[in-house]
Structures are given as C-alpha cells and as structure tokens.
Amino acid sequence: MKLNTIRLQSLPASLFPILSRPRFAILNLHRHISTNQIPPPTPFVPDSKTFLSLIGRNLSQHAAKMPTWESLFSLTSVQLRKLGVEPARTRRYLLWWRERFRKGVYGIGGDLKNVKDSVAHVRVIEVPREQSIGASLGPDAMKKVIVNVPPDATVNESRLRELKPVSGLKVLGARTITGPFVEPVKGTRGSVATIKVQEGMWEQRRGQKVDGGERRKVQVRRKRKLEEIRKARA
After folding, report:
1. Exposed site from 43, 135, 139, 221, fewest CB < 10 Å?
2. What is the rounded distance in angstroms from the CA atom of residue 184 to the CA atom of residue 201?
3. What is this structure's pTM?
C-alpha cells in the first residue's frame, strides 16, 4: 500500500484528474461521436437505406436497425454488434465507408447534384479550353466533358461555369459516355446516359484467400509439400 502511495506521489500533478476518473469513462472516450461529425446527405444518397444499399456486402438487410441518417453515422462498433451487425469485418467495413463519406470520398455518382427518383442524367457537352492571352482559337479550342444536368435542361454559356465534370466517367470516341453503371439513353448515340442507384454500386470486393490466407499460408504450404514428398516416395 505504501509503495502504491509513493508511486502516485511521484507522478506529475496534471495526471491526477485523469487517474481519478471512473474507469468506464476513460474506456468510452474513443466511442463518443459528436453530432458535428455527421455529414449531410447528398442528392444521390438521401437516406441511410440508400447508403447501406450502395456500399453492398448485404448491409441493406440492417437498414431497419439504422432508420435515420443520424443513427447511421453515430452508432459505435459496440452498438452495431448489439444490434446484430455481424461479423466484425462487416462492422469494420461499414465504419470504413462512413469515414470515407465524412471526408467527401464517394463512389460513382456520389457527387451528382441533379437526381430524381434515384436516377441522374449525364450528357456530353463542349466547353472552351483554357487559352493563353492572345492565343488564336483553333480546332482544338473546345473540349468535351460529361456533366450532370436535368434531362430537360438546356445548357447555355451562363451555366457552363456552374457545371463540374462528373468524376469516374469518360468520353469514348466522338461523344459516347463510358463508365461503371452507365445506361445510354436510346436515340442519343451514347451522348446522354443515366446512372441509377443500385445494390452494391460502391462495394469494395473482398480478396480471395490463397492457401488459407496470411495466417495459415505457411502451415498449408508446408503440409502440401510434405504430402507431395510422401506421394513421391510411395
């Protein structure tokens, strides 16, 4: 008892308030999530059900356990486990995607602003290239970009500065839009397309285990080698 007293007295005074706190309070500090860290929904991802559907791995089956946007981004790993989100790698995957979304890192379609009924329209337009002062406008003065606009909208010069190119898509050939989950609109020769929310659009596929995975690789390969030697001697 005296030894413990001596050790505590030798510690800096600044540590006494921390040591005097209840143990559960210290253990739960890392589990606290401020409401300021909850990002706003986007037109393409308006609710928790859509988010869980997009990231895949069958997480949409847990949509009823996270019915609100706030619950989706505030539940801790322990709370998710109590709600039945299993296994642990599924919870880690959900938390990983939550952090990406907080930072503005989306999958295909996540940056689209003009979305109606989970469908966004994209089209190819031509915009002027950035030219140096005094440069003549040649045949390469225009460039083709893919933008997200309502299907019945007209793109005039005043709106060109407001439009941003859609990430993840490319123009192939003359005016054909290419990219994942792109559906060309009939009669447009590929210059107009739609992107619709689908299950697993943003899913990060798990890699296949080779020889039992990293933890069992040496053991599995050793057994295989011994079995090959045994057969060769037979």
Report:
1. 139
2. 17
3. 0.70
Q: Which residue has the tokens 């890392």?
A: 30
Taking 3-state DSSP, the helix, strand and coil percentages for the chain, each rounded to the nearest 5, stand at 40, 15, 50
Q: Please, which residues have CB within 8 angstroms of residue 128's CB and are 6 or more apart in sequence?
A: 141, 142, 143
CB-CB contact of 61 with 129 (8 Å): no
- Determine contact, residues 191/124, Cβ cutoff 8 Å: yes
The three-state secondary structure class of 192 is: strand
> What are 153-201's pLDDT values in tens digits?
877 655 766 788 999 999 998 899 999 999 999 999 999 999 999 999 9
Residue 20's pLDDT band (cuts 50, 70, 90): very low
Residue of 53, 20, 29 lying closest to 202 (CA atoms): 53
- Ranges of beta strands (E only) in 25-157 are 115-116, 119-128, 142-148
**Tokens at 72, concatenated:** 């989706």
